[in-house]
Specification:
It is a single chain. By secondary structure, the chain is α+β, with helices and mostly antiparallel strands. The protein contains 27 helices and 30 strands. The protein has a 10-stranded mixed β-sheet, with helices on one face. Strands 7, 8, 16, 17, 18, 19, 20, 21, 22 and 25 form a 10-stranded mixed β-sheet that branches. A hairpin with a 1-residue loop joins strand 16 and strand 17. The two termini are about 40 Å apart.
Length: about 950
Amino acid sequence: MPRRTPRTALDRLRTSRRSTGFLKTASICVLVAGLLSPLTQTAAAAAAGTASNDYCGGQCSDILPPGENGNATLAQILLNQAFGTQPSHAEDQLGPYAGLATGYKQLTDATVSTFFNDASFGVPSDQVASTEKPGGRGDVTIVRDKKTGVPHITGTTRYGTEYGAGYAAAEDRLWLMDVFRHVGRGQLTSFAGGAAANQGLEQEFYRNAPYTEADLQAQIDHAVADNGARGQQALADANAYLAGINAYIDASDSGRYFPGEYDLTGHKDPITNAGTIAHFKITDLVALASVIGSLFGAGGGGEVNNAVSLLAAQHKYGVEEGTKVWESFRERNDPEAVLTVHDGQSFPYGTKPADAKGEALPDPGTVTQEPLVYDRTGSGATAAARSTSATAAKTALGSARRGMSNALVVSGKYTASGHPIAVFGPQTGYFAPQLLMLQEIQGPGISARGASFAGLSMYVELGRGQDYSWSATTSGQDIIDTYAVELCQDDYHYLYHGTCTAMDEVEQKNSWSPTTADSTPAGSYTMRVWRTKYGPVEYRATVGGKKVAYTTLRSSYLHEADSIIGFQMLNDPDFVKGPKDFQSAAQHINYTFNWFYADSQHTAYYNSGDNPVRAAGVDAEFPVWAQQAYEWRNWDPATNTAGYTPASAHPNSVDQDYYVSWNNKQATDYSAAAWGDGSVHRGNLLDDRVKKLVAAGGVTRTKLVQAMADAGLADLRAEDVLPKLLKVVNSSTVTDPTAAAAVSKLQAWVTAGAKRTETSAGSHTYADADAIRILDAWWPLLVKAEFEPGLGSDLYADFTSNLSIDETPSAGHGPTGSHAGSSFQFGWWSYVDKDIRAVLGENVQGALAEKYCGGGSLSACRDVLISTLDQAAGATAAQVYPGDDQCSAGDQWCADSIVQRTLGGIKHGKISWQNRPTFQQVVEYTSHR
């Protein structure tokens, strides 16, 4: 039975009592009275203690807000909506997580537990909240601790262990798992309602992974067949896991303690209990994996946009100079970029060929985006719905993946204890319930604790083993290529190796009606994708007058299940015994991630992903002809397999002095698909701090957490670019009073550390608020005034399509909106930095092809900056922060704040902005097996 306690003590974070829109509160008392049933699980004083296979010595910690419990009955949802009551363990990790923003400066090793959970194996006997035998089985036990309610699953058989993992996952995330299996199939609106966010999510993912049921099953069959005994074990584990999920569905249905969202969305009747909750099947796991892989682990794309901006540059400057200008903004291999592997190793991948072959650049003005949505009716046909579709398409088709996540890892040579220390984790956004869930799994061949994506938690995906920890950041190297298929006969046939071949049509029809949960009026539409052997059609154009369709081919397309083997290895204590074993496991993960490792003696890094071997002369930046000469080497279209670069060609390292990653460039000559890996990147915020710690030596867990937290409050523009802008402004006395006052405020902010932080905990007011407002208003104005006159409006617009100019904490992030925490990943800070330094006459490696600010004149550049600064200083807070569904206009703190975006019925309060991993570990092992 689910856990339930009285209202949380976190009054400051408590849900607002005002009406929320998720449901109407009429007749709440009547409903609650009728629905309350015995919900409290009996606590058992089971003998459970810290495990003997734990080598961390109490120095492993983790945190995952808002809380472990992501399920709530209808009664609990109604109480939350009406009175702010929280189910037990629904938000008890939110307060400690939020508190670090104002508490990190006073942090000590003894107070790490104030802001993080103890991630030791096992549960001390006096901390056992409950014990259960899921499904009445005798071969598995789920123990939950009092503090966080995390499930600690212990099995005596492999089947029982995985059954328990599935049961615990359903206990904590059943509704969320159901939501995302429908997202993966493009069926979210039919399942959960036609809200704009639901439309955006299903469209974004269906465009990239338009799978049929047969496609999903084939991926399982291939993953099992290609991996021998481990493949067979993965299949057995998945089936046991599914059995556990479905056992919980049946038990909660008959006991009427299933998630209340099923009632509120019309799938169950709250009075009669009529209706069903569909059992999970194995293809659901692939659908779930396709969402996670597409969101966090699929670098590449954007080749058509690259081609459009290149042509614009060549049109303005001529082919030779235009290409130079384009390449300087692209920053494929910028010598000033911060690197994860910084010991001088080079790993060439995706570099510019000396003589490009097979390019299929579109004729200017002919590119049109392939429609996804057809046959709109009702609320699916409104202007708002069409705007949502446009945003989803931009997110899906661009190369700027919101990868997020960071890592700080220091070798034992530079720590006080002599043991490596790591502070790392993924930024997966903020949702209620959270996409990730915590668990510990102990059983035959499995020994791990950490976070896993809900519905894929048969193994721990990011966490710790007995004497080692691992984590990941999104890497973004290019595993997606665009092909120009020449059309024949009509718009739905293309030439494949000289034969006119029909495209495959795949479609998903969705319709919705208003429910208690989602009042969006009735509507419907059909999502339709045309697939070729070279992937789905994304654009159409002409090339040299010939009609073509541009398709995108991703190396992990039709291989969403393959990574399961790598995760299985990471959970196996008999497989991972050191850094080389860790790297071997990571090599079996086909998604694009940076993987980090620490034990008591070693650190390690490996960049994963199936990097296709391209034909000689192919430039991965641009579309190429869909001809055999330009295909991936040894490519088989039937299975979408190809030749891949060997493990040694992937950036990798063992025992470097330190590693940092914040989705920055991995290594010299290793090109990322997204733009913006230049002289200023948010990775510099980590690198600058960790480099100083390592130089001083004696690094501790406290110092490394403080470095992470300090970087997480920094405004990248203010720390790394603003001082140079002020240097230009102050090159002569500022006589304009408005500008002079603004300069004074900005300089004071820089001197104070350039942080976006509250005056005190809970004040909801920033220190240096005026300076922050001025820079937020100034940045877009100065970038446009600095670059548009030189580039021209057309090329400037194309370059801003390749790379947005700014990404403040209040910026939007695709269909999920703003308030997402992650900030300063993509923007023009490197361009501004290089250009201003060039105007100042400073040395610039990898400079832009031309000087732009003031045409290269220092005095003219200064005039541009002062003019735009004047304008920015006059902008009101309401103009800079116009308000949204969460905040009133002018509320600066709220505009930046992090919101746990509701994916269910439970709401949580806002927390102050931090640019920080959602799930985070702090580890320092004291011994090794």
